[in-house]
Amino acid sequence: MNQRFDTILKSGTVVNQDGEGLRDIGIVDGRISAIGSLAQASAGEVIDCKGLHILPGVMDTQVHFREPGLTHKEDLETGSRSAVMGGVTAVFEMPNTNPLTVTEAAFGDKIKRAHHRMHCDFAFFIGGTRENVQDLPEFERAPGCAGVKVFIGSSTGALLVEDDASLRRIFQVIRRRAAFHAEDEYRLNERKPLRVEGDPRSHPVWRDEVAALMATERLVKLARETGKRIHVLHISTKEEILYLRDHKDVASCEATPHHLTMAAPECYERLGTHAQMNPPVRSADHRAGIWYGIEQGIVDVLGSDHAPHTLEEKAKTYPASPSGMTGVQTLVPLMLDHVNAGRLSLARFVDLTSAGPARLFNIACKGRIAAGYDADFTIVDLKRSEAITNKWIASRAGWTPYDGVRVQGWPVGTFVRGRRVMWQGELTAASLGEPVRFLETLKP
Ligand code: DOR
């Protein structure tokens, strides 16, 4: 049979649910049509992937792209450009924009702005508040909705639900897994005097590990009481990893490359407020604890928590400086460097960035290289050594805390639904991003 495909990716090392091996991939109409030896087949385009690894598309399930309202920092176009330049094929974006994404209108507006303007596929979280609680069951079923996100400790923006009674009301009504920023607001308020003006080393002293653990414990209790599933974002402490190990039935969790790569106090001494984020980067033993969570399978997904602020904003004196750093473009290269250093396998990386998101969020047709699935690929050169630089960063913020850091392992190609959108550092297609489809929100 002389098969014909739109595109064939030829002779790449495919990393997949059946292991790692040399394969060709045939694409038709944006979907994977065949995997194997396609030497006899023809195609509109054949792309030589010899020497490269083909991974299922990397999904970054926590980014802040700032549109609407804060577009001097980032917008959906620039943020998603940064994503695909870094090998990311889909993002889940957070609701702390202005206006907050807490109404049907604000959610619909984001979808409209994103459609065919973002370079990668996308989903948006809807913010849970005291005021919109009764509408959440309807909102969380909107196409393109990643679920409900709640800040139980305050961070950038005005979203906050800090008390158990209000949180319980949210838990009672929602159906899908909800995502949480877990730092205990009461403890954060009590400890505010511990912030030292001009010294970001005091950031993890103020927002300490107890505040994170307390919040995570409260969320797990509420999840058990109400029979709901929670996703704890950006885990920052070894105690939470050990605690969550015993609660995998109700709780999933995310780690960020920042918490796996940096350690206090060194990062604050070297980078100042550029290393300031919430929850904070902590000491090396917490970092080791999060790695233990990666090794032991406790961590479910990686999210970059891409949270851009301008250099002028970050130059304010701590604690007036805002929390957050860019990350969507550096997730893949940093983690490949960790793969090359032997800290995790390539298979575990794929589990954390493709299979993990698909499993937790019930994503339709993404997260595996399988016939019938979307042809989303992150193509990487594991041997390539490259320095991360501010110049390379496509985010409007224009900086990375890893400026000048040399890594081994580099994203060289990004495919979104069969379309090559980035190749060897160049954008190669128009922006045709579409909403990620979830099993729970598919139209009947
Ligand atoms: O450091 C952070 N920055 N943590 C968050 O949770 C929010 C984010 C932002 O939006 O700037």
TrEMBL record:
The cofactor required is: Zn(2+)
Q: What is its EC number?
A: 3.5.2.3
Task: Drop me one GO molecular function for this one.
Answer: dihydroorotase activity
Is-annotated flag, keyword Hydrolase?
yes
NCBIfam families attached to this UniProt entry: PRK09060.1, pyrC_multi
The record's section on SUPFAM superfamilies has: Composite domain of metallo-dependent hydrolases, Metallo-dependent hydrolases
What CDD domains does this protein's entry cite? DHOase_IIb (cd01318)
According to its UniProt record, this protein's enzyme class is hydrolase
Which family, according to the similarity comment? Belongs to the metallo-dependent hydrolases superfamily. DHOase family. Class I DHOase subfamily.
Establish whether keyword Membrane is in the entry: no
- Protein's name according to its UniProt entry: Dihydroorotase
Function description: Catalyzes the reversible cyclization of carbamoyl aspartate to dihydroorotate.
Stored InterPro entries? Amidohydro-rel, DHOase/Allantoinase_Hydrolase, Dihydroorotase_CS, Metal-dep_hydrolase_composite, Metal_Hydrolase
Q: What organism is listed for this UniProt entry?
A: Bradyrhizobium jicamae
Alphabetic keyword roster: Hydrolase, Metal-binding
Domain Amidohydrolase-related intervals: 54-421
